[in-house]
Each structure stands twice: as C-alpha cells, then as structure tokens.
Amino acid sequence: MARGTANAPHSDPPTANGPTPATHPDPPPPNPDPPPNPAPDLNPATDLDSDHPGPDPDPGPDPLPGPASAPAPASVPALDRPLTANAAALRLIRDSLSRSRPAAFRLAWWTLVSALPALVCGKALALAVDEGFLTHHTPTAALYLCVFALCALCGAWASRQTYPPLADIVEPMRDRLHREVVQGTLRRAVAPGAPREGADAVVVARLTRQVEVVRDTVAGQLMLVWQFVLTAAAVVIGTAVIAPAAVPLVAVPLLLSLTVFGVLAPATVRRQHTAFEAEETLAHRSAATLASLRDIIATGTRDKAEREVLEAVRAHLLASRELAALAAVRRLIVGLGAHSPLLLVVVAAPALIDHGMTAGEVIGVLGYVLSTLEPAVRLLVQGVGASWIRLSVAAHRLAAAARHPVPPKDPPHPRAPADASLVLSDVIFAYGPAAAPILENVHLTLAHGEHLAVVGPSGVGKSTTADLLAGILHPDHGQITLGGAPLDRITAADLNRARVLLPQHPYVFAGTLRENLCQLAPHTPDHVISHTIDELGMNDLVRRLGGLDGQVDPAALSSGQRQLLALARAHLSPAGFVILDEATRHLDAEAEQRVEEAFRRRPGTVITLAHRISLARHADKVLLLDGQRAWAATHDSLLAEVPLYGDLVGHWNTGAAHPDGHRPDATGHDENAPRANSSDNRPADDTAQRDAGQGRVSGPDAASDHSSSRPSADRAP
Fold it and tell me: Where is pLDDT greater, at 337 or 199?
C-alpha cells in the first residue's frame, strides 16, 4: 500500500514487527523564524465546522458583503477606530434616515402639523377669558374653548399619522441590526485567534434586549426630539405674541434645565454603560453556571459557583441603583424647566398686570406652560433623555458586535492540493508558549483513499488534532501537507473545497431537507442525493420529514438524526478529505456500521476520531495519542506492541457481549471461539492483566460503558 505522495516529506513507515512511534528520537531545534501561518477564514457556505444560519430566503435589498471585501455595514459601522457612544448613536440615526428618506419626510411633516396647535392654544385661552368670561359673553368664551379643543384634537390626529412612517424607518433598521450583528459575530468567531466559547449569553443579549432597545429608542428620538423642539419654539413664540414681558420667565428656566441635563448626560452614559455590562456579565455567569451544574456538584465547588453568581447579581444591583439615583436628578430637571416657569408666572402675575397684561393673557401663558411645555420637558428629560443614553450605549456596543475582522490574506505562492493524501512532519503544537505540548514531534503519512482512526484517553488532544488537520489551528513547528501542498500555502477557498470537518455537535438549520443535505453541494442532482440516503440508511427519516422538500425542525430531531443529516451533508460534499470528530457517537452500532461502510466506499481519505473499537479495528491505520507520545500503525500492530492501546481496547469491550452471550476479547473477537494466527501472542491471561490495569488509563471520550459521557441511546431511524 502506498504510504504517501512522491513529493511529500518522508516519514518512517511501520515495520513488520510492530509500530514505529510517531515521535522523532532527536527532534530538530525549532525554527526561530517560522513562516507566517495565517489561518483560513472558514467560509460558512463550504465548511461544516461553522455555524451557518442556513439559506436566506429573502436577503432583502441590502446584500451583506462577503468575507473578502468586508466593508463597514451601513447602519452599524464596522470601524478601524472605535466611535464614542454618542457618535455611534448619531451615525445610527443618520444612516436610518438616509435609507428611508420618503418616510423621514412624511414623519417630519406630520410632526410639524402635530406641533402647530401648541401655537394656538394659549391665545385661544386668553381670548376666552378676556372676551368671554370677564365680559360675561358665554357664547364667545365657548367658541374660543371649542377652538382650543379642536386644536388638541388636530394635534392628536396628526400625532397618530406619525406612526406609519416611523415604523417604515425603525423596523427595517431592526432587521439590519440583527443581520449585521449575527454576521459580525460569526465572522469574528471563525477569525484567526478568536475564542471558541463563552459568548453565547452575550450574543443572545445583544440580539434580543439591546437590538430592541435600539429600535424603541430610535423611534422615541425621531418622534419626541423633533416634537419637543417644535413645541418649545411654539410656546416661546406664543408667549411673545400675547405677553412679551413673560418670555424671560418661561425661557430662562427652560434653558437652565437643558444646560443641567446636558452636563449630567456624560455621567449618565457611563452609568448606563456599566449597567449594560453588569447585565451581560450576569447573563453569561448564570448561563455558564446552569450549564455546569453537574460538574459543580461532582467537584464540590458549589459554594464558589454560588459566590461568583451572587457577585454578578450584586454588581448588577449596584449599577441599577446608581442609574436610579441619576433618574431622580432628572426629575428635578423637569421641575426646573417646567414647574418653575409656572411658579414664576403666578408670583409675577400682579406685576405683569400692573404693566398692562390682562388676566386672560396671564392664563394663556399658564396654559402654554401647563398643557404644552411641561409634557414636552418631561418627555425630553425623563423619556428622551434616558432613551438617548440607552441608545448611545446600545449602539456603541452593537457597533462593536457588528465589526468585521480583517480578512486573512491568501498566502504567497499558493498551491492547491493534488489529492487527499496527508503527511505530518515533526508536528508540535501547544496552547501558548508556556503550555505543555498537546502534540510533540508527530510523524504520519496517509495515502489518498486511506482511513485513519485517532484514539486515546479523553483529553489528550484528539479534537485538537482534528482542528490541526482541518487547518483551523496551525502547528508551532513542523508541517502538515494535504495532497502535496502545505496547509499554510493553500488558500481558504481551495481548502474549503478540499476538506470537510464534521464536529461532535453538527449544525442543522431550519429549512428544507434538501437545503440541509446540499449545503456544501447546492446543485447536487436528486439521484445522487437518493444514493447517499440509501447508503446511510436514511430512507425512513426522509419519509418522516416529508421528502427532500419537507421542512426540518432541528428541535424536533434526536441527536442521532441530526448527526445523520450532517453525515449525509459531508458524504455529498465534493471534498476528498473528510474529518469525523466523533460524528457517529449518537448512533447505534448498526447505524454506525452503515455510515462507516458508506464512507469507505466514498472516494477520498477519511479521518475518524474513534469512540468504538470497530472504527479503529477497520481503519487502515490508527493514530494513538497519550498526551506525550503518538504512535501510528495498524490496529493489530498497536495491540501487540503498545500496552496503552491494549488497555484502551479492553476498556472499550468491558461489558460488551454478543447476542449469544459470548463476550468479545480485547481484539474484538469472540473470546470463546477458536483463534488461529492471532496477532496477539501473549498468554491467555493477558486480557485479564490488561483489564486489571484499566484504572491507570481512561478510555476514549464517550466510549466506555462506565463513562458518564457514553453515547446516548438515540437510535437512527
């Protein structure tokens, strides 16, 4: 059997007498200047390891940029330098208005109409008093009061007309926010060096609470700020028309209150920002604690976990109290801007009347202040002021959430893989310079079409190895070549076409079955899809879902059914190099055997992180990891020469029995059946010795019958 390609680096093959350790006895010194190793951007459309949200049936008028261009989104800016909170809010409102100009003009018109009655109401009250009540002309007073009531009704009707154009502005903005935050979050999640976990609660908070905060507060700003400006102008103008001497009594307190409000705004923004952070921290800490309750109880760390959650609760409470204290100050601002003019006019009324004002004009000024100015100031300070602060903070944080990472550049002098052969040459990898290596001096040669099983105790780096082989991670030293081309010389597009990674928790999205199966090969004909369905034994599942055009509800599927759909997706992909990271752990043995045989018949190379003995026994080669060394050989050679592998095989078979009651031995054969030419030439009690040593090692992840993480009992349909 061929061991590699002609241009691949040489590695020592297993010998006839046993396996060659996949470690080099004298490793060369690390290269002090390793070549640049940009990680490829995992394109969700071509890679199973990304959380692709599925096909978008209605992308809308604003198509999102691809990862190669990554321009700044229109409504939430993707910035090279961060904006301040207020600048982010202003840009958000400006962009929303620029995208909906006709609706913005309609909103401005109806807001102006709704503010015009404020100009008339004070004059109507003054005339009703002076020419009606004081002169005992009741019909005249009633006429002017009717004018006042009609003005109020016209204002209410005009306010009603502002809502449709307002919805035409803020609803599309909300949709863009959701789309851009999702896109930015996903692209940063797959960017080189990005953390792989811990952001779920934060992202959910941004997508729900903060996006809704932005929608609601933008609506308030667009409607109420413009309405306040027009209303305040109408009050000042109306007061100047009927009583010029009273203008300072109204305008000066109003200006003072707005000045105090502006001075306090930065401190309020900071406290609102702290409150948002405390809320997100509490959500993240609570979600992480609830998800880890089993481990917390098992390790006896309940008190520590409780303290951490309570600290987050106290921090959130403190931030909320500080924010509430500023809210009380804002109520004092309302008193300064709206109630003090009322008091000043009442106190100064005798002097104003002595200087020529009539009683009706004094009442008209009071009407302006009470019925028009006081509600406007209260909405501005308590409503618009608080909402602007929340808008500025939320817009600033959403701008950061929607920011796109810098796309990785294609490597210089790129090469495309010729086939699916794989060579690892002196590979070393560790999570950080001070960490112990996960893999050290690993050598492996895998020819095109061969199948490799990766085994080892839990936590030794099997999933890390899968990420290295997929190009998600990059070795600190050594080289990995796929089809004769080094992984760091393959472009992201070529790598996505050449390999597919199926993780332990595959993604199934809401959509048709055809869309799920053909995600990596959109134009696959029906007869090819039917062949894959037959190969994997999925006919009952397909019928239950209503055929290829039936709708898939991911929540209604079992773990095994989701894995079958993802396996079919990988089987249909054009990639010749397939990595299965325990992708059959939720299938029963019969379904797993069908999957294994289907992928053996499929052209290309398959690497499987094994969790059952059959996967390792049927593979062409086995890579055994123990956290310090690695061995690459056949199943029989490893079983004969490496005690650790014998322990693992014995642990796999603990408690397993055939239907006739016979128990398989460590090689996977019936221990009661006669054997000839067995590769295990140890004494007959060797199996018992290996079983006795189980306490020194743990079986592969989710493999042992005694493991708390053994595969679930979900049976494939």
Answer: 337
CA distance 355 to 105: 44
pLDDT at 664 over 60: no
What is the distance between the terminal CA atoms of the chain, rounded to a whole angstrom?
37
Where are the alpha helices (H) located in 669-711, listed in sequence order?
686-692
Distance CA(634)–CA(312), nearest Å, equals: 53
Query: Which residues does residue 21 pair with via DSSP β-bridges, in sequence order?
Result: 631
0.70 surpassed by pTM: no
Joined together, the tokens standing for residue 320 give 């909320």
Which residue bears the tokens 């691949």? Answer: 8
pLDDT in tens, 49-108: 333 333 333 333 333 333 333 333 333 333 334 456 667 777 777 787 788 888 888 888
Half-sphere exposure of 11 (CA within 13 A, CB side): 33
Share of the chain above pLDDT 90, in %: 17
pLDDT tens for each residue of 310-320:
999 999 999 88
Q: Which pair of tokens denotes residue 141?
A: 């007073």
Give the Cα separation of 490 and 482 in Å (integer).
9
Locus of tokens 């294994």: 596
Cβ–Cβ < 8 Å for 67, 43: yes
Looking at every residue in the chain, the average pLDDT score rounds to 75
**Hey, what are 344's tokens?**
């000043």
CA Rg, the chain, in Å?
36
The three-state (H, E, C) secondary structure of 357-373, written as one string: CCHHHHHHHHHHHHHHH
552 closest CA partner among 591, 506, 496:
506
Answer whether 224's CB lies under 8 Å from 383's CB. Answer: yes
